[in-house]
Amino acid sequence: MAECEEKKIYRLEEVKKHNNVQSAWIIIHNKVYDLTKFLEEHPGGEEVLLEQAGQDATESFEDVGHSTDAREMQKDYYIGELHPDDQFTQNPRSKYVTLGSDQAQGSGLSNWLIPGLVALGVALIYRFYMSS
């Protein structure tokens, strides 16, 4: 979407109407995407997208763990924002982390570094006490 274009705002009721193979829209992080032309190309099959069509698919999208490439592809299908009165709020107890479409996922290294250091510490303590 060109930066000079005005951002289109959609009401939830409008998005709900686009829930079939002829017109499939979804909402991810309060952004509206028209995935109609992507249905046949989706690696997980069109059925997965059609199950989410016309509604908020943020949790499903995040649960799958889409790649950085998939997140980049979102830009091609972006058509606007969900109206502020209809926006979904992030549940703080949700099992997924909200990432903006322009943010990258966290490093895999940081996801393993802390648990690895804790395991190393436990192993060293165990070995020290076993040799005493």
TrEMBL record:
InterPro entries according to UniProt: Cyt_B5-like_heme/steroid-bd (IPR001199), Cyt_B5-like_heme/steroid_sf (IPR036400), Cyt_B5_heme-BS (IPR018506), Cytochrome_b5 (IPR050668)
GO cellular component: a single term: endoplasmic reticulum membrane
Top-level taxon: Eukaryota
Domain Cytochrome b5 heme-binding: 7-83
Entry keyword Amino-acid biosynthesis: no
Keyword Aminoacyl-tRNA synthetase: no
Coiled-coil residue spans: none
Listed GO MF terms: heme binding; metal ion binding
Similarity annotation: Belongs to the cytochrome b5 family.
Full protein name: Cytochrome b5
